């Protein structure tokens, strides 16, 4: 069986993302009506880096699944109903005092069953909310692009690219934009209820083992906003213009394409915004469960726990012996078949041989050179974690990315040409930019130190 390396990361641990990733090996009949099982997905851990491999056969199957969903009159409505039911269950499951599940520092049998139920609902939630959005981004965007470009045949290439990039943007304010709006209002009025804002947004920047917004975090953000309030206001004004433009473009499409775009916008809202809020809250609760047993563990020690499979984490918290579990961070293989997670054979380690970094080359879109850390932003839900002065690495960009594009040292995208959104904006901002870099996301890890030569279209790991 042949595999694609679709994602490689040294910052996002195996767990709990495996509860989402294992869904790509399931039958998608409930989602789409397509009754065909997917082949196994493989995750390989090598010295802290997790590489996700999807079978070649998933390309065609996923495109068919997404096509059925986004052209249907009823399937997206069913997904939304399931999201509402399952998110409510997850909220209830995370509304407990941790003391209920532990005797001393050991997870009780009641705690074990509780955590098994939590992981079960998490997995099901990801099936309905994460799978359609991720499959769309990975396997359907080019299909959609061909449809829209055919309809806009009389437009110039640049006009088509501008409209397409707008349609891939959020048709409502993102969670991050709502957060900025609340902060701007508080910063300019001088009246801000920090505890209320913490309660509302504490989950926003968390990413499995990341930060949680507290009052100290808010104070720093408010200070920054006060110093550049006009810039932040302009960002929100641009967001509202974006929404207006997307609605105009969508309204002008023929009925079939308009319905498809409306379905896509609903799916991507669930994937980028609802999922981020719900799953982040659950992930924070899970981390609290882990740190209850291991309160003095450093982040690197917690990461070693998070390279275990879900059942093993439950066993570890319950005091069971897991042989050589601290070594799992150095080398491990997980096989996901029919949504179930098990240890994979060592033969899958051979997949890493094909991922040895080679020189990355793309199209020079805006000249210049830069050296810095790579910040991989897979979709708009990751935008809050971007750090000023790093190099933006993304599958593509659209207008949602403008604030971080301004703050980036350089911009690199996996797709796109000289008239793509990334290329046009980078030239306007006078930022080094390379587009159309094949295997970019799979070749770099978040935090890698890289050298960008946008004069020649070359990216080099340092």
List the helices and strands and how they pair.
Blueprint: E1 3-9, H1 18-21, H2 29-32, E2 41-46, E3 49-55, H3 57-70, H4 75-93, E4 102-103, E5 106-107, H5 109-151, H6 157-167, H7 175-189, H8 194-201, H9 215-227, H10 229-251, H11 255-293, H12 299-305, H13 310-317, E6 331-337, E7 340-343, E8 360-361, E9 363-366, E10 369-376, E11 391-394, H14 402-407, E12 411-413, H15 421-429, E13 433-435, H16 440-443, E14 449-453, E15 458-461
Parallel strand pairs: 10-11, 11-12, 12-13
Antiparallel strand pairs: 1-3, 2-3, 2-6, 4-5, 6-7, 8-15, 9-13, 10-14, 14-15
Describe the protein.
49% of the residues lie in helices and 15% in strands. It is α+β, with helices and mostly antiparallel strands and 462 residues long. The protein folds into 3 domains: 3-148 and 260-352, no CATH class; 175-251, no CATH class; 357-461, Glucose Oxidase, domain 1 (3-Layer(bba) Sandwich). Strands 8-15-14-10-11-12-13-9 form an 8-stranded mixed β-sheet. A 5-stranded antiparallel β-sheet has the order 1-3-2-6-7. The chain has a two-stranded antiparallel sheet with strand order 4-5. A hairpin with a 4-residue loop joins strand 14 and strand 15 (458-461). Helix 4 (75-93) runs antiparallel to helix 5 (109-151), helix 5 (109-151) runs antiparallel to helix 11 and helix 7 (175-189) crosses helix 9. The mean pLDDT is 93.
């Amino acid at each position: 069986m042949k595999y694609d390396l679709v994602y490689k990361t040294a910052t996002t641990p195996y767990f709990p993302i495996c509860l989402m990733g294992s869904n790509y090996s399931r039958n998608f009949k409930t989602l789409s009506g397509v009754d065909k099982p997917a082949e196994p997905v493989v995750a390989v851990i090598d010295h802290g880096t997790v590489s996700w491999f999807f079978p070649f056969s998933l390309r065609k199957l996923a495109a068919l699944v997404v096509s059925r969903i986004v052209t249907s009159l009823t399937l997206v409505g069913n997904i939304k109903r399931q999201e509402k039911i399952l998110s409510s269950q997850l909220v209830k499951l995370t509304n407990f005092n941790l003391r209920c599940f532990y005797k001393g520092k050991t997870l009780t049998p009641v705690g074990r069953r509780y955590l098994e139920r939590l992981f079960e609902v998490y997995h099901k939630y990801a099936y309905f909310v994460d799978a359609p959005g991720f499959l769309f981004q990975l396997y359907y965007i080019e299909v959609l692009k061909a449809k829209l470009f055919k309809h806009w045949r009389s437009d110039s290439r640049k006009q088509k690219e501008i409209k397409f990039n707008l349609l891939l943007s959020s048709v409502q304010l993102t969670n991050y934009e709502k957060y900025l709006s609340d902060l701007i209002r508080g910063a300019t009025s001088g009246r801000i209820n920090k505890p209320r804002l913490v309660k509302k947004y504490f989950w926003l920047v968390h990413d499995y083992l990341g930060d949680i917004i507290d009052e100290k975090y808010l104070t720093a953000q408010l200070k920054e906003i006060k110093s550049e309030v006009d810039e932040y206001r302009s960002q929100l004004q641009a967001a509202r213009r974006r929404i207006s433009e997307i609605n105009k473009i969508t309204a002008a499409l023929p009925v079939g394409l308009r319905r498809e775009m409306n379905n896509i916008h609903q799916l991507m809202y669930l994937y980028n915004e609802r999922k981020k809020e719900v799953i982040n809250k659950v992930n924070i609760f899970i981390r609290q469960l882990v740190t209850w047993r291991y309160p003095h563990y450093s982040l690197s020690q917690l990461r070693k726990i998070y390279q275990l499979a879900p059942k093993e984490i439950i066993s570890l918290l319950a005091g069971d012996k897991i042989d050589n579990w601290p070594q799992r961070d150095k080398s491990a293989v997980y096989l996901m078949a029919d949504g179930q997670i098990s240890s994979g054979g060592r033969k899958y380690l051979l997949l890493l041989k094909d991922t040895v970094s080679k020189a990355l080359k793309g199209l020079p879109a805006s000249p210049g050179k830069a050296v810095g850390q790579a910040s991989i932003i897979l979709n708009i839900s990751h935008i809050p974690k971007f750090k000023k002065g790093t190099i933006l690495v993304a599958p593509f960009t659209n207008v949602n990315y403008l604030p971080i594009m301004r703050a980036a040292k350089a911009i690199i995208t996996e797709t796109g040409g000289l008239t793509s959104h990334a290329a046009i904006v980078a030239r306007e901002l006078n930022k080094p930019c390379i587009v159309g870099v094949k295997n970019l996301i799979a070749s770099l890890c978040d935090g890698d130190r890289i050298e960008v030569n946008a004069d020649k279209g070359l990216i080099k790991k340092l």
